Amino acid sequence: MEACISTIIILLVYKWLSNRSRNSPAARRGPYYASINSMVTECSSAMERFQSLLNLVGADSSIQNTPEWQKQIKTQGAEIARMPQRVALMQPPPDCMTVHSHLSGMAMHYARWAGMFLEAFDKEDQTLADTAEDEKVRGDAASERATAELQRINASD
After folding, report:
1. Residue 38 structural domain
2. With contact defined as beta carbons under 8 Å apart, do 109 and 65 qualify?
């Protein structure tokens, strides 16, 4: 009988302790921090791919005339532009508001940065469209080089 009572007491204490640890601030922050880690990893990866595409233009400016490059840069830019909305949808615990604020600021900064480049490329594309005949000849040759380089970058991801 005493063993039964002490077993029940031990189980009740264990249940009380496990409920306490599940409701602790650290337990509430755990899933949020995991989602922050995932978001930062995604954002950093998108920025690295965006930077790789920009580096290709730095090496050979005719690459930006290729449809494959333009498609990839716009895709990466759109992914980065969605980051602030995704951060806004996250539900941070009350004691994580500072971290959430910093994450939101980082996402907005990256979105503005990518938007600035995309806007510049769109303006440049419009200018190039006016002189398309001259660029077409150079663009075809660069297209083959760009496609090979883009495939190499995508294979490394």
Report:
1. 28-156
2. no
